[in-house]
Amino acid sequence: MTAYLLNDMTWEEVRDALGTVKLAVIPIGAHEQHGPHMVESCDAILATKMANLLAEEMYPHIIVTPTVNMGISQHHLNFPGTIALKPDTLIAILKDIVTSLKHHGITRFLFLNGHGGNQSTLNVASTVLSTEEDVEVYYAKTTGSAKKAVSENITSSIFGHSCEREVSEALYLAPSLIRPEKLTKGDLNERGRYKQLRPGRAIQGFYRYEEMTNNGNIGDATKASKEIGEKIVWEAIENIKSSLEEILDCKVGSVY
Amino acid sequence: MTAYLLNDMTWEEVRDALGTVKLAVIPIGAHEQHGPHMVESCDAILATKMANLLAEEMYPHIIVTPTVNMGISQHHLNFPGTIALKPDTLIAILKDIVTSLKHHGITRFLFLNGHGGNQSTLNVASTVLSTEEDVEVYYAKTTGSAKKAVSENITSSIFGHSCEREVSEALYLAPSLIRPEKLTKGDLNERGRYKQLRPGRAIQGFYRYEEMTNNGNIGDATKASKEIGEKIVWEAIENIKSSLEEILDCKVGSVY
Amino acid sequence: MTAYLLNDMTWEEVRDALGTVKLAVIPIGAHEQHGPHMVESCDAILATKMANLLAEEMYPHIIVTPTVNMGISQHHLNFPGTIALKPDTLIAILKDIVTSLKHHGITRFLFLNGHGGNQSTLNVASTVLSTEEDVEVYYAKTTGSAKKAVSENITSSIFGHSCEREVSEALYLAPSLIRPEKLTKGDLNERGRYKQLRPGRAIQGFYRYEEMTNNGNIGDATKASKEIGEKIVWEAIENIKSSLEEILDCKVGSVY
Amino acid sequence: MTAYLLNDMTWEEVRDALGTVKLAVIPIGAHEQHGPHMVESCDAILATKMANLLAEEMYPHIIVTPTVNMGISQHHLNFPGTIALKPDTLIAILKDIVTSLKHHGITRFLFLNGHGGNQSTLNVASTVLSTEEDVEVYYAKTTGSAKKAVSENITSSIFGHSCEREVSEALYLAPSLIRPEKLTKGDLNERGRYKQLRPGRAIQGFYRYEEMTNNGNIGDATKASKEIGEKIVWEAIENIKSSLEEILDCKVGSVY
Amino acid sequence: MTAYLLNDMTWEEVRDALGTVKLAVIPIGAHEQHGPHMVESCDAILATKMANLLAEEMYPHIIVTPTVNMGISQHHLNFPGTIALKPDTLIAILKDIVTSLKHHGITRFLFLNGHGGNQSTLNVASTVLSTEEDVEVYYAKTTGSAKKAVSENITSSIFGHSCEREVSEALYLAPSLIRPEKLTKGDLNERGRYKQLRPGRAIQGFYRYEEMTNNGNIGDATKASKEIGEKIVWEAIENIKSSLEEILDCKVGSVY
Amino acid sequence: MTAYLLNDMTWEEVRDALGTVKLAVIPIGAHEQHGPHMVESCDAILATKMANLLAEEMYPHIIVTPTVNMGISQHHLNFPGTIALKPDTLIAILKDIVTSLKHHGITRFLFLNGHGGNQSTLNVASTVLSTEEDVEVYYAKTTGSAKKAVSENITSSIFGHSCEREVSEALYLAPSLIRPEKLTKGDLNERGRYKQLRPGRAIQGFYRYEEMTNNGNIGDATKASKEIGEKIVWEAIENIKSSLEEILDCKVGSVY
Predict the structure, then answer these.
(1) What span, in angstroms and rounded, lies between the C-alpha atoms of D133 and D124?
(2) What pLDDT was estimated at residue F250?
(3) C37 near C162, Cβ under 8 Å?
């Protein structure tokens, strides 16, 4: 094995892996519309792919759990096919995973999250589980830390959902998520509440995605490329790996 | 498309499919130990494969949702790697899926369940969701109705978990779930509470799997074959399809 | 005393009984329509009577708690008078009983259940309470194990609710539950979803009882007799007693 | 019939009764120690008897439901046999009864409560159910309004639990609840927190019953008599009946 | 400092105070209409003022927490501005305060309550928290024990909400709560359910305040005075202090 | 009146105000340690002051509710006096306020939040309440948008809790919150998990405040001034006001 993936292991293999595993990575996605050119499972698939890469990089110290393949998508619910978990449901799932794995001796967890809409719920889960279950719970947006690659390659003023960044990641990690013949820019509305509620404004709050975009995506997916995706993915993987190593107080590869 | 799988569709494709879709199939698995010769995700994988076959058979009337890839596995929790959802968590997930899809116009659901331990919780979910959400909720054990193929091909007195039946299904549907070099019989304990608590006895109740089997499986997986698996799978698919057609009051292929 | 019944004991008598009591029996019934010839409390009364008989048979090792006299009856709710507990409510009641009696030193419990509709919820309760409260929780359908007496005496193809079996039990245990002048066959519908959803079919799921029967009962109560009831009751009592003795690892009457 | 008791009725009889029924009475008791001379079910039995009397008096306008035979008894839990429902559990039961009967057309309810420890929870239930379920929910302590009979016949300074008042009620309504040879005064402690926490003091709060009494009862049960019980019971029945008639805006016996 | 008020202390000051503090007082109010002459925060303000007085009287043994400034006001909800917490919400708040302060070493609590409508919920909270969190939880209606001052100074047959008693308390403790030019008698309805449901009647239950009074208050606020308020307040403070001293088994001022 | 503050209004005044009110502002604080130089209620007091200023600025279109004076402070719980609400508790409170005011006709809400630790829970509340209660729910960190004033006046690399920014705000809005003689810099730890988990890093997650600072504050409060506070406060008020006006689609002062 070159990476510990719970889905692909027998109990005897897990038993043996637990000797070196220091942290479990829980990939978390969403099941929601991503405009005309991405399929609805993409957040779950990309989170899984990122988790698997991280597990390879940090082998044998990390183990990847089954993916939480739905998330907080209430704002996309008026687009067909979207499924939204309530925040309480997502926290309940995470609690069950964490307490089950704690039973097996794992006490440190990273929620590796592919969907921005999950972040606040994961923050709440981190607080609740860390204090009530006596574990360490971290979370990260999969490629949120790839600031250099993003600033050098992404030009849309509003991006972050089925845009050139996300489509690039998919072209590198899982190109079957893309309908190449459908790639298109976000069809943004000229006005609406959303303009006052974007990150960085004085006020935040819930709005529905169709208030912002008619076709369900933002940014400009026609500018996406596998090469951009590769840069973003690896900058993020390196950042997460580096932070985890500090947190786990271990250089991967060191003797235990 | 030859089958409607929500994971692989864009929102525009879902919108178009909803014109003929009469029922959503929610595959439900588990993440639990399956002895030395099956990986822990097998219930989830097999349920997904069965759902996909059913969707092909009943195209364009059925749509498959993302898989619920963990379940009620408290009885396996002392084997490394097992993850157990609380029954309330599983019901909450199913409620969120059902109410989300009802928002899109779907009112009939089949929980296609690969794990026996989920059945009671799914019965409860069926009652609760049918009465509180004004939908029709059915559930089925994936190959539970393949009585003929089972009676003709399965010989162990106690079977049902990583046995010749389940391994045969995997050999046909997803052979990568199997460690062929590890195939072995269940190492059953001679005595224990479990003998009084198996299906058909006067009393039922919770017991832990290690009370029954030392290696985590039962039956005799060395007798499994792809051919047996194929027979079981298709007898079950035909039975489920036949029942669904009656329930949906439609012959698939008929004009609407 | 010839049987320990909590309802009829003072606290000093309970204190003394706890020296030999090994298990508490919680009778569980329902409050639901039973057709024109049985009153609505019959499941609760019959479960109570069975529990009391069992307590006599296994004196001084068993104690009977107050009866849970309502249950999961959503499927009967369109018949006047039916009361339905939510599954969560029933589990909450059982948790409170179990944890209260655990406070008094009892750690083994049998839910003796008179109503088929409760079985799945009791399975869930058994899992949840066994794992979360560190107790042993068993459950049994009162006369579900009387297979010989049933196969020899019951002839209706569909039976199980206010039928010749249940009415026979009542004629033996509590004849006041019966309106003799009203005894009648189930007035079954010719077609309907229920035909696909009965036990043993490929699919299961919630349906309302009026989809199946116009008068609320099934089977043929006119064939009931006290004699049949007596056979069923005692075959079941013997089976439950035998299983319990094995589980409790004691021959009743042995020295402790 | 001279009283409508749901336990003893078939669905057809309930259907016919609903033509005149204006209110459902839900008897609520407890399962808790009552000293050496009363059995633990007495609150449930006495509430049931009172409800049945009221149903006779107000026939055909009132129907009695199954009894809630356990209640809020945390303060008695250190005496063997006591079972305590959590307040949330009791409210959940009442909600399920109320919503079930509302489905049958009943919108007014009286919780007829035999156990003082339930009163606050019933007040909460009255508020919650009245506002959330659009029904009228009343509650009454069974004999709480018999002020004249109590003031003339009860002499203990502290009474209210297995005392001369409650034992008198039992002697009249259900003498089998009493162990006549065990009748005794409460064995009160000289000091303790309870003295500051009794009704009428500046502060209230939870204390355990063994802080107050060593044998579990208070008052002086040796002064109880069937005659006192009869006076108390009928003064209370008349008061409740009178108030209900005003509330229901009907003189019983009037033409509808 | 002459009183420990958590709101006005730094963590170092709290740390030092904990050396002598034996009990935390949690002021609880409501946010609800109080007729034309009192503002809606009055219950919260009066409870806070009373808590502060008590803290001065019992310094350094008592510490006052932030005020719970909303409560159980469903019965006032049809008057503009009223905010009603669900009983479960109020209990959740109290649980969080109690468990947080228990973390700091405080195990005894007094809910000092300014709003009659909260009393039953506080009784439930007292039971639940005392038994589940291993603390002592008491509660008191702020001026409920001032029986002498009330009987000598209050003449309205129905009083208790924005009446001469409550307005007098405000004139003494927080006169800005009063609109002096608006002082008026309660405009009571001649008939209605409320007449059967007032304290002391055979039946109790939820009714809406507009069923009883058209202007939202009862009693006769024109008879209120600061002097009456002062008498009521100090009689109550003395009573609560006296009871607390007994309960805490300490004479304030004694050496520890 | 120059500002609508629910705490200070009678129901008749609220009734009249509702004619022009378009949005309710709910001030939300915390009760937590703020180092040696600020009292523990400061987040609640500052949020209240900011809400009141906003209500003056946007009179008569805004009404301020009672303050939620505790919040999500689990990370400060090891400092004496801190009280932490569970996220579910905070959401329950907000739901009760929102649904109560919706009953009075208000459908737009702003959570004006003084405590950074509440932000994720408020995001979750915004999603849940907006979708389940059919209202518009916004939230804002009180002075989070004062980016210009902060960048020009705040120099500490790590700030945000009892630092020169927050102390400056207090010096302007509520100087009694400050212990001037205690003003001090944060006593930061040299190393620890917190360095990997600060905003902007690849990973986030729960850590306890004492891991970061020994005295409970960060930044350098000795650099605070009333003048800085005034600039920050008014830049933020103007930003929030401007955004709200856009969202409410009204210029304040315009005719309705």
Answers:
(1) 14
(2) 59
(3) yes
CA distance C221 to C167: 6
DSSP string, A30-88: -B--BTBTB-TTHHHHHHHHHHHHHHHHTTTSEEE---B--B--GGGTTSTT-BB--HH
pLDDT computed for residue B254 by the predictor: 42
Q: How far apart are CA B63 and CA B65, in angstroms?
A: 7
Q: Calculate mean pLDDT across residues F233-251.
A: 91
Handedness of CA B18, B19, B21, B22 (dihedral sign): positive
Amino acid E249: pLDDT: 80
Query: Out of B9, B15, B80, whose CB is closest to A14?
Result: B80
Residue F67 pLDDT exceeds 90: yes
Instruction: Tell me whether residues A77 and B9 touch, CB distance under 8 A.
Output: no
Q: Is the dihedral of CA E54, E59, E60, E65 positive or negative?
A: positive
> 3-class DSSP state for residue E207?
coil
Residue B19 touches chain A, beta carbons under 8 Å: no
What does the alpha-carbon distance between residue D172 and residue D164 come to, in Å, rounded to a whole number? 12
Confidence band for D256, pLDDT divided at 50, 70 and 90: very low
The pLDDT score that the predictor gives to residue F249 is: 80
Look at residue E252 and tell me whether its pLDDT is greater than 70: no
Chain-chain contact of E201 with D247 (C-beta, under 8 angstroms): no
Q: What is the rounded average pLDDT for all residues in chain C?
A: 96
Q: Residues near E20 by Cβ (< 8 Å), separated by ≥ 6? A: E60, E61, E256
Q: Which residue does chain A place closest to B32, by CA atoms?
A: A11
pTM: 0.97
Q: How confident is the model at residue E244 (pLDDT cuts 50, 70, 90)?
A: very high
Please answer yes or no on whether E205 and D138 come within 8 Å at the CB atom.
yes
CA atoms within 13 A on the CB side of D114: 34
Selection from D173, D165, D232 nearest residue D41 by Cα:
D173
Residues 6+ apart with CB under 8 A from F245: F58, F251, F252
Give C131's contacts in chain B (Cβ within 8 Å).
Answer: 74, 77, 206
Q: What are phi and psi of A111, to 5 degrees?
A: -80, 110
Residues in chain F: 256
- Out of B137, B140, B203, name the one closest to residue C244 (CB): B203
Summarised one tens digit per residue, pLDDT across range A98-127 is: 999 999 999 999 999 999 999 999 999 999
Per-residue pLDDT tens for D129-151?
Answer: 999 999 999 999 999 999 999 99
Q: What is the DSSP letter of B155?
A: -
Q: Could you tell me if the ipTM is greater than 0.95?
A: yes
Which residue on chain D is closest to C92 by alpha carbon? D89
Task: Name the more confident of E192 and C15.
Answer: C15
Q: Residue A253: CB partners within 8 Å, gap ≥ 6?
A: none
CB atoms within 10 A of CB D253: 10
Structural contact between residues D98 and D230, judged by C-beta atoms closer than 8 angstroms:
no
Query: Cβ-count burial of A6 within 10 angstroms (0-12 exposed, 13-18 middle, 19+ buried)?
Result: buried
* CATH ID of E4-248, from 3.30.310.50, 1.10.287.110, 3.40.50.10310, 3.40.800.20: 3.40.50.10310
Distance in angstroms (rounded) separating the CA atoms of residues A237 and F202: 9
Q: What is the pLDDT of residue D253?
A: 47
Which F residues 146-185 touch A at CB under 8 Å? none
Distance CA C190, CA C200 (A): 19
**By the 8 A CB rule, do A64 and A245 touch?**
no
For residues D95-116, one letter each, b for 16 or more C-beta atoms within 10 angstroms of the residue's C-beta and e for the rest, the string is: bbbbbbbbebebebbbbbbbbb
3-state secondary structure (DSSP) of residue B81: coil
The answer to whether the beta carbons of residues B70 and B31 sit under 8 Å apart is: yes
B41-45, F157-161, F236-240: range with lowest mean pLDDT? F157-161
